Amino acid sequence: MKFEAVIGLEVHAELSTASKIFCACATKYGAEANTQTCPVCLGLPGTLPVLNEKAVEYCIRAGLALNCRIADFSKLDRKNYFYPDLPKAYQISQYDLPLCRDGFLTLASGKRIGITRIHIEEDAGKLMHSPEGEGFSLVDYNRAGVPLIEIVTAPDLATPEEAVEFLEKLRRILIYLGISDCKMEEGSLRCDANISLKPAGAETLGTKTELKNINSFKALGRALAYEIERQAELLAEGKTVKQETRKWEEAKQRTLSLRSKEDTQDYRYFPDPDLVPVELDQAYVAAIAASLPELPEAKKRRLIEEYKLPEYDADLLTGSRHLADFFEAVLKDYCNPKAASNFIMGELFRLMGEEGLAPEALALNPAHLADILRRIDQGELSVSQGKKVFEKAFRTGASPAEIIAAEGLRQISDEASLRTVVTQVLAAHPQSVNDYLNGKTKVAQFLTGQVMRETKGQANPQLIKELLEEELAKLRP
Description:
Number of domains: 3
Structural class: alpha+beta
Strand order of the largest sheet: 2-6-7-10-1-11-12-13-14
Shape: elongated
Number of helices: 15
Low-confidence stretches: none
Strand content: 15-25%
Number of strands: 16
Mean pLDDT: 91
Radius of gyration: 30 Å
Distance between the termini: 82 Å
């Protein structure tokens, strides 16, 4: 029997606010354990939470970008469960009245993936387990109370590839919005996946399992592929799939059962009595909508249409808002979009990779790259010299003019002086000249190299080629 997978995602993104969602504690990643805490986020008796307005704004920004309806009225609820990383023994979240509902995100295929809801909630602390056999765990509450949005999709995804594409597109949008850095390695973007199988063509869904806290695109794809195969084998053997929560073991490339899956009633949701409802007027929402940046897909389409870039180039350049902005800043001073794109995708990507730099950490002045590209076009610099100047500018921040002056990296394009060097080289290598005149045309590469050596690599390669052909033609019998 053939089976079809039904997949839904629950994506948690930490919001890039300066303070936590219900108190003034800092949200900086990597601080010493338990140094960014207070009585409110530790849940001490007598404390009262106060909602961070920025967290509400950021959730609305996400909702608008993902085509959601924004609720005029929503509330915050207590989600009750007991776990060591939850100091209050409940999490403040949203249940039946979230801020955002009924949105969608469109995949490259044109398939529309529904977004059931987006709501705000607080993060839990972080457990750190001792090495196997030592038998203890430590908890860091710095993360407790950090604001999150949870983005819940409809069960519209059918393959691991679609799930990965959805998450990649979602991450790109959140970064463009400036509401989350989405660093999966730091836990600021995490994903749970719900998956079930049903007989091909059937309407009734199968029993689902939840894959918890997946923290990379590759892990998401592998975990879903493994779970599809595992469930298909069980169903083919006439066995049942348990409703449970499982985790992905990267080292062993398998999912492992953690616990039976909780139902909604197990959390005993009720409105938080310490927080008033959130009521929004349309002018406030409209102002947020007006402030949204150009989003990745729209920017990609515009780069293709306005600058005639190939889709491949536009896709890479819009992978980061900072990178796309850098590209367009270069074009303010340089008029060849494709040449700029090629240089960025080649040299800039190479140097960023060597330094481990993210686009948002890029300090390079785009006017410097425009200057280098103009000098290459005008023959003042060879391509190789341009790359050297660019690398110096990238690493030091110095201007191309300063680097060229310091390094003596100016291309020689004076015809008279180069012709003199060419005739000297030909006179110094009579055997090579004779070989060329007898049909061994590859010798021209050797002669070009000799001219470059005599000019310390600064001669214009195209001009050398032309002058060599002219002078050699004079020597033919």
